[in-house]
Design goal:
single chain, alpha+beta, four-stranded antiparallel sheet, globular
């Protein structure tokens, strides 16, 4: 399939990119790796008049943990995340999500910002980022705003980002002592971003060998946006971590998700519910193990 005609713009600075988006707004699309955008253009799902490339803007490729929190530039690639010892040490579930994303070739091109802005229900990075409580920085020529990922996704392919805004940075707070997270996905085939379901879980303990003080479970590919398993989270808080408790929370998460009628289903609703339960139990165990090691 051929691409529709478009003008290609390559601003040298973020300020210049913001000016271009302010001028053309919905008539322009930002491109970094292009692994989702180019496919959608070939399929004639979108046909922007202009593509604004931000892939060479150096400030969007940074990785900063100077304040113990983590700041990732939106053009940081999935391959860079997957191989980062810094991220692996404290935010290992994000590395796991990056390693699960597509093939090596795709990971070399795909950016963390693009994976979020494309808002694909089957995307690998949103669940672990949401489990860590991540926020995104949206910048325009008139200023910037910070939005929690919990409020960023509005539907399949739809986000909070305005037509003149550019996602420039992802922020994750410093990991608290005795906290950890896990991520796991189930796909149709290897080396292809074709998830049937994915889950990320986070646990915070009140001390070594203590009870669960806070928990998050984020389910992907069971609806148009990532979904929090609120009842399963509530079930965990205040309890002593055990395999039996994690299995019970998995069952609750499976019952809570409602994948029926979901366009990107690729599997029956019953199967997805069962797999959510299994992956929730698995990721909670990983999160607990990491929390004990922190």
């Amino acid at each position: 399939m051929l691409l529709p005609k478009f003008d290609f713009l390559e601003p040298a600075t973020l300020a210049e990119a913001c000016e271009i988006m302010a001028e053309y707004r919905a008539k322009a699309k930002v491109i970094a790796g292009g692994t989702d955008l180019m496919v959608n253009m070939k399929r004639k799902l979108i046909s922007p008049e202009r593509l604004v490339s931000i892939s060479r803007i150096e400030e969007l490729k940074k990785l900063d943990s100077s304040s113990n929190a983590l700041k990732i530039g939106s053009c940081f690639t999935a391959a860079d995340i997957a191989s980062s010892e810094l991220i692996e040490t404290k935010w290992g579930a994000l590395c796991a999500g990056a390693r699960a994303l597509g093939s090596p070739l795709i990971r070399n091109l795909a950016t963390i910002g693009g994976n979020l802005v494309s808002a694909r229900p089957a995307a690998d990075l949103p669940p672990p980022l949401m489990a860590y409580g991540a926020k995104v920085v949206l910048k325009s020529s008139s200023g910037e705003r910070v939005v929690s990922l919990d409020n960023f996704f509005q539907g399949g392919g739809l986000t909070e980002i305005a037509p003149d805004e550019i996602l420039t940075e992802i922020r994750i707070d410093a990991m608290q002592p005795y906290s950890g997270a896990g991520y796991s996905n189930l796909g149709v085939r290897s080396a292809c971003d074709c998830n049937l379901v994915n889950v990320a879980s986070f646990i915070l303990l009140d001390g070594p060998g203590g009870r669960i003080k806070n928990a998050k479970i984020v389910m992907g590919c069971v609806g148009p946006t990532p979904v929090r398993a609120a009842s399963a989270e509530k079930l965990l808080v205040g309890e002593t971590p055990t395999d039996a408790l994690f299995a019970k929370a998995g069952e609750a998460a499976g019952k809570e998700c409602k994948p029926r009628g979901f366009a990107e289903s690729r599997a029956s609703a019953e199967y997805k519910k069962d797999m959510v339960a299994a992956l929730t139990e698995k990721t909670l165990a990983v999160a607990h193990r990491q929390a004990m090691e922190q």
